[in-house]
User: Fold these one by one.
Assistant:
Number 1:
Amino acid sequence: MVKTRSWRFDFDVKQRFMANSGLLLIQNEGSWAVSPLLSSHGFLPTRGSLMLDIVVCAMLFVMMILAVSIYLVRQKRLYFAHRTIQIGLASLLAIAIVGFEIDIRFFTDWRVAAEESPFYANGWVDRVLWIHLAFAIPTPFVWAFVLYGAVRNFNVAEPGEYSRFHRRWGWIASVFMLLTTVTGWGFYYLAFVA
Ligand code: HEM
């Protein structure tokens, strides 16, 4: 039986219980309740939370869709399909980012699970997280800039004077997304798999 002396200590015990039991505790008007919907253990055989597992898998899906979209516009000249896919992908990413931020800020203490990694104490988990954030933070802004510019300046989706500018920035946005994905996978591996 653990004796709790302070609220902070009490909170730490509950966080640890959360990470070890696979259940998520939520605080509701001062009392704690177990949420059966939000499991702190995801579906991958790792220490990642449900949301982290979803994001790790979703990024593979996002990169595949992005590759198809660029192939369609570059090789097949299917401009309208490219436009539709890119708008859909950006909307999906916006929802995923909001969900992910809510989870990481309010529900999942990822450090509890990452502490078990041999790369946590020597600082590599944090180092790779900083590298990841260097791409992950600017990427939504670059995407918003490219998307807004394309919707405003193309006549529906026909090539025109804006093409050169869009092609350059479209590639920059795509490379940012690729680097966000690869560094994100690196962080996930070091923190929750190793
Ligand atoms: C963030 C979202 C987007 C990204 C990352 C993106 C990326 C790209 C890339 C990399 C290319 C160049 C392919 C090549 O090398 O030929 C391209 C071409 C094109 N994109 Fe996008 N795109 C986005 C959104 C849009 C939207 C919303 C529209 C339409 C309103 C659009 C219309 C076009 C057109 C018309 C071209 C062909 C330009 C030309 O070769 O004349 N794109 N896009």
Number 2:
Amino acid sequence: MSAPALNGARILLLGASGGIGEATARALAARGARLCLAGRRRESLAVLATELGEGAAVATGDIATEQGRRSLVSGALNELGGLELLINAAGVLDFVPFDIHDPGAWNASSAPTPSARCC
Ligand SMILES: NC(=O)c1ccc[n+]([C@@H]2O[C@H](COP(=O)([O-])OP(=O)(O)OC[C@H]3O[C@@H](n4cnc5c(N)ncnc54)[C@H](OP(=O)(O)O)[C@@H]3O)[C@@H](O)[C@H]2O)c1
């Protein structure tokens, strides 16, 4: 079964500057989505936007902060003129042995994901 065409659907994609989000960006662009690529590293996002071509925009912000989330959503609205979908692929993957884990680092690494629900 082939994946459905996205026909210009406007999508804010969090975590597009690396890993799963970057791969997702390529897959969505190939199906005709209009993407706003989001993360904190503008340079990585700009390189990907250039590769994906016309229609790919960039917004930077930290989803662990309210200001960052607001900045990402307003940036995407400005760039795309509206939004149909938000996809959150942003997060931190930190493998640490359980018996030496640091609670502060645990909280920091899990902060981005729950915060994104507020967008
Ligand atoms: N890779 C796996 O096998 C796997 C398996 C299961 C679950 N996961 C989960 O999936 C998520 C993504 O994994 P990944 O392998 O794609 O990680 P990754 O390659 O490190 O990419 C993480 C992405 O999240 C963004 N990000 C992180 N913190 C952010 C913040 N505070 N504000 C805005 N953007 C932020 C990063 O962008 P910037 O650095 O530009 O901000 C980057 O684009 C993680 O939560 C991970 O735990 C991964």
